[in-house]
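As a next step, the fold was encoded as tokens, giving this record:
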Amino acid sequence: MLQLSNLSDARRPVRRRHLVCSLGCVATIASLLPSVTSAQTGSLAAYENSYSPQIQVAADSDASELSSLQQLAPVQDGYRPWWQDVLTTPMQADSNTVLIGVEDLLVRTLQNSSQVKVFSDLPLIRQTAITEACAAFDWNAFMNTRWDDNSDPVGNVLTTGGSDRYHNHQWTGSAGLARRNHYGGRFEVAQDFGHQNTNSTYFQPNNQGTAKLRLSYIQPLMQGRGKVYNNSLVVLAAIDTSIAEDEFSRQLQSHLLEVTRAYWALYLERATLVQKRRSLELAQQVQDSLRARASVDVVGSQLARVDAAVTNRRSELVRAEMAVRNAQDRVQALVNDPEFAMTTNLEMVPVDLPRLESTHLAVGDVLSTAMQKRPEIDQAIKQIKAACVRLNMSKNELLPQFDFIGETYVAGLRGHSDIGRAWTDQFSTGEPSYAIGLSYQMPIGNRAAKARLQRRRLEVRQLQNQFNATAETLLMEAKVAVREVRTAEREYQAKFAAMVAAETRLDSIQQRWSHVPGQNGSIGLYLEDLLAAQSQLTDAESEFTRALTTYNLSLMNVKRASGTLLETEQVTEGVAETGGLPTKILDKPILE
């Protein structure tokens, strides 16, 4: 059965202390590098516990940032703009309507998005490197064989006993098993067989069959010794896989944010279209009114003015309708739902409306959460750990190559090509033979190993600085995200007040224009004010809608900036077999 778990747990974040964050200064981390002895078990857990940076976070400097500014009255509870009922209903003739909400789009994205599938394959690809590294300690079976047919001139009568050419016919074969262990040693067991005949009178017996069972072991005593060094590639592969999980989390959060942005862009463009249509209707009402009074008190220039306004607003609808289609295509491209692709004359109708509730965010809490939850922080720490593993490997490679060599064997020999009896003789009449020795090798100056060690040290220093830069950048992003929420909230409140004022002004001008007589050109003056007020109201409604959608998008952006988007959206993941290959399965519930 497919097991699903919360994605934030599946990423196995690096364990570290509760982090107190600071934009001003990130603590040094050079003293926290792991030593060779800290990883004697050769496991990833040893390295995970070896590096835990502490970062100081400043207090919430934005707490009183807006206290000196004039406070705006919040939008009253239960307020519902007039255009919401229109834009949440089909607006295209003969269209196939699909109702969409933010949560619905996120679920569809997790299940269908091609881009998400690209992201999700990265950890699975990197995970194969762990198996590949572990396979270095697997048993290897080998077999080889060779036939030699030699005819050489003789320079010594003792070689053949008289013939002037030496003829040798020899076959050898070997098969066995070999394995490298976690301490760096190599063990090999092999069974050798052979057959040989020559024209030498001294070769007795001729047509010899031979057999030899041998065991050998080579153990490094200095360079390449120990579990820490030999398990390093496994540890590096595990760290690399964990980094890939963090990268997948980062990319997935960014993609879900883009889907949310596309949804609110579609909402905004549909709202703008509805508002422009209403603006056109208001202008047409004025046009109809003037035409009805054309024979009484309206001059031709006034009709021309209103006709121009109607034509201009009608032309604006062309661009607005195209913007709706573009926004809809953007959603479709990000989600990749087959239902969208298979639906002809598709019209996406948003059903989730912008929220107007105030949100109170503490900058310090968001910064602390970001330092604990952002996958980029985990990535930076794990990259330093991987660099430390490579540094420890380079320290080991500074040592001379000094190996212990041991070998033992039993052998048998028979004439008349009797290899079978030779094989039994190696156990019945053969006596064990053995050999032991030492091998030493050291490059003069050892410049290559020293250069690698210096490179690894420079890489560690570079990654330390990169961690500092990453932490500073993420803290800045988190502060900007919180400020954006605060700013967007105040902005939509201000835009709401401006929209109400524009609506009040339009009502006042409309009342005066409806009752003013057409004498002395008064109607012309009020006509200009009326058309201008209509345009101003439409612009104010558009700005309010834009500010409101920006506020709602900023709420999702705060989740991404703090690294909790997947957690708060309750995204779960599992792995299933598809076509013989592992595939990540992502899902989430529809949250209210």
Q: What stands out?
A: The chain has two domains: 5-132+233-390+453-587, 137-231+396-452. Confidence is low (pLDDT under 50) at residues 1-52. The first strand starts at residue 5 and ends at 6.
